[in-house]
Amino acid sequence: MQGNLPTRAIMNGQVALELIEGDITVQATDAIVNAANSSLLGGGGVDGAIHRAAGPDLLRETRQLGGCQTGDAKMTRGYKLPARYVIHAVGPIYQYADPGVATLLASAYRRSLELATEQQLNSIAFPSISTGAYGYPLAEAASVALRTVIEYGREHARPALIRFVLFNQSILQEYQQVLLGFLQKNWVDPA
Ligand code: ADP
Description:
The structure is a single chain. Strands 4-5-3-6-7-2-1-8 form an eight-stranded mixed sheet, with helices on both faces. The chain has five helices and eight strands; from the N terminus they run βββααββαβαβαβ. It has helices at 45-54, 56-63, 100-118, 138-155, 169-184; strands at 8-11, 15-21, 31-36, 73-77, 85-90, 123-126, 161-166, 189-190. β4 (73-77) and β5 (85-90) form a beta hairpin. It is globular and about 45 Å long. By secondary structure, the protein is α/β, with parallel strands linked by helices. Bound molecules: adenosine-5'-diphosphate. Residues 23-25, 35, 45-47, 49, 91, 127-134, 165, 167, 171 line the site of adenosine-5'-diphosphate.
């Protein structure tokens, strides 16, 4: 089954979408996105891994930012990371049957992309925001995440590479299933 699931797509003839299994802290994209909490003072999961890999200067910078609202994002330098910038996006804590969570999750992705476009970045890597400690069901989160970046990629030439770095095979496959559905609906083109 794995062989039939897509790992790439193209939006607008020029923006590439990639799904890979891996660790976001080693990505050499212009920016990596952190699934941060609203304090921006570090935490567990991907947030802890990014702060450990970037070194203490990252916390020194995020301390100056005064936090970040859910659904918004703020950019810092990447320090010891291969990525030049970290975009700290705050996804929602999942609450069952609250329709607001999907809007907030989409907003976290969109604001991250807007910051990348403003800085004229060519490439960005996302983790699966809100699907760890914040409890967002994976299939629903994958659908919101991919729909949001595809809509954005159709309207903007930059960033020209949008990569999802999924932490294990089952998360990757969930995103691949959603992408397959979008390819079948012609929302995005095969690559
Ligand atoms: P949130 O609080 O937004 O739910 P988490 O960090 O708890 O954020 O989890 C978000 C996702 O990031 C989960 O799918 C988790 O498995 C994944 N994750 C954890 N560490 C890494 C990493 N180093 N690289 C990529 N993804 C990671």
